[in-house]
Design brief:
Layout lengths: L10 E5 L3 H13 L2 E6 L12 E4 L5 H9 L3 E4 L7 H8 L8 H8 L1 H10 L7 E4 L4 H7 L3 E5 L9 E4 L13 E5 L3 E11 L5 E3 L3 E6 L4 E7 L5 H17 L4 E10 L4 E7 L9 H4 L4 H9 L13 E7 L8 E4 L1 H5 L4 E5 L10 E8 L3 H14 L1 E4 L4
Catalytic activity: 5-amino-1-(5-phospho-beta-D-ribosyl)imidazole + hydrogencarbonate + ATP = 5-carboxyamino-1-(5-phospho-D-ribosyl)imidazole + ADP + phosphate + 2 H(+)
Organism: Thermovenabulum gondwanense
InterPro entries: ATP-grasp, ATP-grasp_carboxylate-amine, ATP_grasp_subdomain_1, PreATP-grasp_dom_sf, PurK, PurK_C, PurT/PurK_preATP-grasp, Rudment_hybrid_motif
């Protein structure tokens, strides 16, 4: 078996040049890989750390073929990309992880639910919405959640329908209905599976959401739940990745119901917001793990070194323009705090602009510090919207 590598180790192509690609590239470059990204913006976040940027659309067959031909393995940091050309390229022998077939399942959230349900994965009750007439919602039952089949992310494409009064807010797109789950906590598990079939699972975390934007606001690691629930959540998450035959790192979003049942909410076929804490808090970050998984290297340890809290830094309401970071010096004086800024050239309300991670032996103290830092750190602009 080959265990000799030249430099660079391998050429990795990433479709998408956002913050996830940037953090993947940082890990890959540290290890000696060559990194290319494809993104519509030449100044995308990953451009500052990768070797080469191809400027082009995620649905441009020619550009996707170009990055494939310049790479030895392909991955992506965004789901909303062309799969037809990726399937053709894979048939031609190009290495693409996770696979285009898996990506097609993930892109259609209704199909995703069908595949998981058929495999025995616990999911909320769901049904295809065949009509936008009030009767279709009533027959399913209030309250319910309408979800767009395609294109939704960061809270977009989701509408809670509590009764007839909310029908004026329905999404006028292809969608499905899901039961409104009475949850105790929203959880997540990062699962890594390599091209050799090796599987590693990170600690179960809990996610706290910004109710106004429906975006993850804070991640607490480890989750404040019983050991039995942790083990069940990990088992469900690992089974989910295995039945999808996933290769790479996956974020498995879960509901913990009031009666202690675990249900799968969604699957992300890439490093996930809920795993950013692993950069400081785990022996191997989710980003290095993804690189290891797709290049056939042994997976690293997922051990949690210290309890951690990650908080997203979102663009403030009322501002849209070149970003200004307020409160940085005072925030960095908080013991255990690490600051990450993604390098996006423009801020807008609720856009993910960066994150902080706080390590502390006491998880409750870490939460207190994160809340304090969130009050100090503001991403604004000289341009008001």
């Amino acid at each position: 078996m080959k265990d000799k590598y030249g430099f660079p180790l391998t050429k990795i192509g990433i479709i998408g040049g956002g913050q996830l690609a940037k953090m993947m590239a940082q890990s890959a470059k540290r290890m000696g890989f060559f990194v290319l990204v494809l993104d519509p913006a030449p100044d995308c976040p990953a451009s500052s750390v990768c070797d080469r940027v191809l400027v082009g659309d995620f649905y441009d067959d020619n550009k996707i073929r170009e990055i494939a031909e310049a790479s030895e393995v392909i991955t992506y940091d965004i789901e909303h990309i062309a799969t037809r050309i990726l399937k053709i390229l894979m048939d031609e022998g190009y290495k693409i992880f996770p696979s285009p077939a898996l990506l097609e399942i993930i892109q259609d959230k209704f199909l995703q639910k069908q595949v998981l349900y058929a495999a025995g994965i616990p999911v909320p009750k769901f049904k295809l919405l065949e009509s936008l007439e009030p009767g279709s919602f009533k027959s399913f039952g209030f309250p319910c959640v309408q979800k767009a089949r395609k294109g939704g992310y960061d809270g977009r494409g989701v509408q809670v329908i509590r009764g007839y009064e909310d029908l004026k807010n329905i999404l006028k797109v292809e969608s499905y209905l899901e039961e409104y789950v009475d949850i105790e906590k929203e959880l997540a598990v990062i699962v890594a599976r390599s091209s050799k079939g090796e599987v590693k699972c990170y600690p179960v975390v809990e996610m706290i959401f910004d109710e106004q934007a429906n975006i993850c606001d804070m991640v607490i690691a480890p989750a404040r739940i019983s050991e039995d629930v942790k083990e069940e959540a990990k088992a469900v998450a690992v089974k989910t990745v295995e039945i999808l035959n996933g290769i790479g790192v996956f974020g498995i979003e879960l509901f913990l119901t009031k009666d202690k049942k675990i249900l799968v909410n969604e699957v992300a076929p890439r490093p996930h917001n809920s795993g950013h804490y692993t950069i400081e808090a785990c022996i191997t970050s989710q980003f290095e793990q993804h690189i290891r998984a797709i290049t056939g290297l042994p997976l690293g340890s997922t051990k949690l070194l210290m309890p951690a809290v990650m908080a997203n830094l979102l663009g403030e309401k009322g501002y849209e323009g070149p970003p200004l970071i307020e409160g940085l010096k005072e925030a960095l004086s908080i013991e255990g705090l690490s600051f990450h800024f993604y390098g996006k050239s423009m801020t807008k309300p609720f856009r993910k602009m960066g994150h902080i991670t706080i390590l502390d032996e006491n998880i409750e103290k870490a939460i207190e510090k994160a809340v304090k830092a969130k009050k100090l750190l503001k991403i604004t602009s000289e341009v008001r919207k």
